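Input.
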Amino acid sequence: MPIALAPGMGINAYFTYQVVGPNGSGVISYRLALTAVFVEGLIFVALSILGLRQWLARTIPRSLKIASGAGIGLYLALIGLTYSAGIGAITGGGASGEPIRLAGCKPSFINSGTGMCESHQMRNPTLWLGIFGGGMLTAFLMMYRIKGAIIVGILFVSIVSWPRYTAVTVFPKTMVGDSSFNFFKKIVYFHPIKHTLGALDWNITGENAAQFAIALVTFLYVDILDCTGTLYSMARFCGAIDEETQDFEGSAVAYLVDASGITIGSLFGCPPVTAFIESGAGISEGGATGITACVTGLCFFISLFFAPIFASIPPWATGCTLILVGAMMARACVDINWRYIGDSIPAFLTMALMPFTYSIAYGLIVGIITYFILNTGAWIIARITRGRIVPHDHEYKDYWTYNVRGGLLPGWVKRAARGKVDFWREHDFDTEELGSRDSYAIAKKERESGGSNMTGIGVGPSDQLDGLSMDGIITGDRRWELEGPGYPMIDTVPRTDSRMHTRTPSMR
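Output.
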């Protein structure tokens, strides 16, 4: 999958400011918090192996899953508009009570107490460099499907921002600017991790035990919804979702690797690792396979040694990239079932609360609870009145069931329980069936050459059946169309023919 893993920003804030606290002032120590992350990762791996995450992703109502992708797009756009990771077009309302206010002023005009622009809104040169150099230029290149459009925009803005003594420099003549510029000039630098590598503390006793348990449970439920929702939304964004099964190929391995990243990351001193929503940038550039993720991992590895360069890429160089990717992800909202209130309101709340709560998990929680209350209430009323009182436009409701196709346990568990040696294989083919396909191909060639008038049956793709224009089954002069790869809607049963053993289709 073209999905990168990195410490999630939402859960990072909880880890840093509520669990550990500034300068270790939180409820538990940094080392004990890493232990909670490590244990949570092991539980997460077990849930992935047992298929709970896959089942959850398939069980969430369709409109909520689509809304989660659109909500992540709005979340990205909000990040791209802020000062800390974007172009600085908006800021918090501060004492005015407004949740968001127009910004875009130079740092010297920002009130240090409220974080608001006191004046000179939309007059920051870096804002306009980000809009036109990182936004308009990238969008123009994307209109013509030019590969690397996002990288071109980021590099252009970064290179323009690196020289000092300009209005858009990322190294102003301040103490912080001088320190950043001195670090930038090093080009190559490696920071050892001896203080964070394996820094786990297993002293879980006394008061620490209760706070440890609270942190563990919080990490777990947030990651179950956050990581699962993000991974599923990215899979849908790259077109990998099978609409019939609501799953994607290799999902078991993808969920397992995602969960393993949490445990491995904690050993290196990281808070919970998750599928990064910024993976949408690579997908929008055409990434569709794991090669994209491998290249991303290689770039992360290179950045270990060239940290001065990567750390000097200004936020206004990447802000518009996040906005553009968010716009592309938000297109999914047109597929939400807006015709039925029981689907549309939970979907809208999911989509709206993700950016406003700065959390993918909280958006999904609100959406799921709202969906359950509305639709369970409507179901109870319909049962009591024997179907006489139902919601308006109830016939447009998206079908939903907890008993999804495939069940709770993943396929490999079921195959292992049946004693399959190669239980990790997702598709099992019957040897006799494959032999019958080969027999048909031979018989068909003999009939066409006049060597035999036997009636046979063939099952297979058109490119293997000499001249057929589409996938189908042929028996004599009759034909059945197949449903798709693997031909799941067709069963075959043996039928003894006086001339040869053939198979006839049984349509269910």
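Residues 207-237 form the longest helix (31 residues).
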